[in-house]
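so my prof wants the structure for this chain in the tokens format not the other one, which i didnt know existed until like an hour ago. anyway here's the sequence
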Amino acid sequence: MYAEFDESLVTGNEMIDGQHKELIDKINKLVECCEKNGGKLEAIKMLDYLSDYTDFHFSAEEKLQEETSYPGLEEHKKQHAAFVKAVGELHEMLEEEEGPTDAFVEAVNKNVIDWLYNHIKGYDCAVASYVNKA
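here's what i got, hopefully its the right format
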């Protein structure tokens, strides 16, 4: 399953929305790599690429929250940490296997795509609403 940036994911904050589009593009490149049997090394490379961009994005979001004194910052950081942990577990899964398996792709769908959709629609929309009022 590929991720898609649609109207339900629009926060109204240009920076956040732009980064979410980029994040979804990187997720889709990982899924595409897995579906085309790109192999273990290529999948690890794509997961590293996703992980690096996630770090950048989460730092930018948290900085925005700090600058605007967003009251939910600590809970938001916990959510980000949970995602980073899930990506780490995906790394471990890839290391243990010959390459990206169906179980790995299923884990990407559940732990990355589904998580991201829920996070954006809940946490990130709340941040954008707060920032837009500030």
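also thought this was worth mentioning. The chain is about 80% helix and 0% strand.
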